[in-house]
Amino acid sequence: MVQPMTAKELEYIADSMSNEDLLIKQCTVASHTMTNPALQQLCSQVISVHQQHYSTLLNAIQQHQQVAPTQPQA
C-alpha cells in the first residue's frame, strides 16, 4: 500500500517539478536559436527526457492525493 508523503517530500517533489519545467523552457529556447539540425534534435531529446521526469513527479503527487488524509493528523 502507498503511504502518504511527508510535507518535506512533497516540497522536494514540487521543487523538482519546478526545476524540470525550467530545464524544458531553457532547452526549448536553445533549440529555437540553433541552426545546427543535430543540436536541435539533441535539444528535442533532452526536452522529452525532462517532460518524462515532470510527468513522473506529477504522477507521484497525484498518487499521494489519493492516500493523503483529508483531516490534519493529531
TrEMBL record:
Domain of life: Bacteria
Record protein name field: Spore coat protein
